[in-house]
Specification:
Penicillin binding protein transpeptidase fold, 0% strand, Glyco_trans_51, mainly alpha, 251 residues, transmembrane
């Protein structure tokens, strides 16, 4: 059997195809230009506010009657525990976690609602000081862009200092300084490993993991933080077990 010859493309079809390609190219160009204009406008309208982020953080702590705590005034165990559980790639990321965003987006699509945060320490800082807590796509996009800008503007030490002062840690305590005093009656400088791991686990769900209210859940969360520190080679398994079994001198 002789194969049939393909039908020749008519002049009308060629014209239609070329028109479609030109239209698609124009729309793509327009979308790209609009995107650049939108990003430029977002940058221009938010850069000045970001330049005052430290002042916003200090104003927040002052409003809560919290004394500002420098990073050098905090036990080194606390930032280690915090990073292990809240933002493992803190010192190397751009203020956002692509893996965290992808994971959160997948869960959101599966559940049909915003159930996952996928937030880094930088994103949490920006959200607390500059954005609402509404779980919407525009708010999430704004949080991502602001976090990228924050990382470009401030050092990791500056970002971490702002976060450990403004983060809510339950029991009406904002910041690690007030939390150390509220839970243990000590300064943040004197926090040991067990106490640091307990406090570092609170930002996720402060009221749920409050050791004064839900001690068993707080201990479970503490163990999760300690295991994260073992995973990231900050402590040994033996250190983690000793810390978990150590008594907590809660007030």
């Amino acid at each position: 059997m002789v194969p049939e010859k393909p039908l020749d493309e008519t002049s009308s079809q060629r014209t239609h195809r070329q028109h479609f390609k030109r239209s698609a190219a124009k729309w793509a160009l327009a979308a790209g230009v609009s995107g650049l204009i939108g990003l430029s406008a977002f940058y221009a309208s938010n850069w000045r506010a970001l330049e005052h982020l430290p002042q916003l953080a200090r104003a927040h702590t002052a409003h809560e009657r919290v004394k500002w705590t420098r990073l050098t005034q905090v036990s080194p165990w606390f930032p280690k525990a915090l990073i292990a559980t809240e933002d493992r790639s803190f010192y190397t990321n751009w203020g956002i976690s692509f893996q965290g965003i992808a994971r959160a987006a997948l869960v959101d699509l599966q559940t049909g609602q915003f159930t996952q945060g996928g937030s880094t320490i930088t994103q949490e800082l920006v959200r607390d000081l500059m954005l609402s807590s509404a779980k919407t796509i525009p708010r999430k996009v704004s949080g991502i862009l602001l976090s990228l800008m924050t990382t470009a503007l401030y050092s990791k030490q500056q970002i971490l200092t702002m976060f450990i002062n403004e983060v809510y840690l339950g029991d009406n305590a904002y910041g690690v300084g007030q939390a150390a005093q509220s839970y243990f009656g000590i300064t943040a400088k004197h926090l040991n490993l067990p106490e640091s791991a307990l406090l570092a686990g609170l930002p996720q769900l402060p009221s749920v993991y409050d050791p004064l209210v839900n001690y068993k859940l707080a201990k479970l969360r503490q163990l999760q933080v300690l295991n994260g520190m073992v995973r990231d080679h900050m402590i040994t398994h033996q250190q983690a077990m000793r810390a978990y079994r150590a008594p907590l001198p809660l007030k």
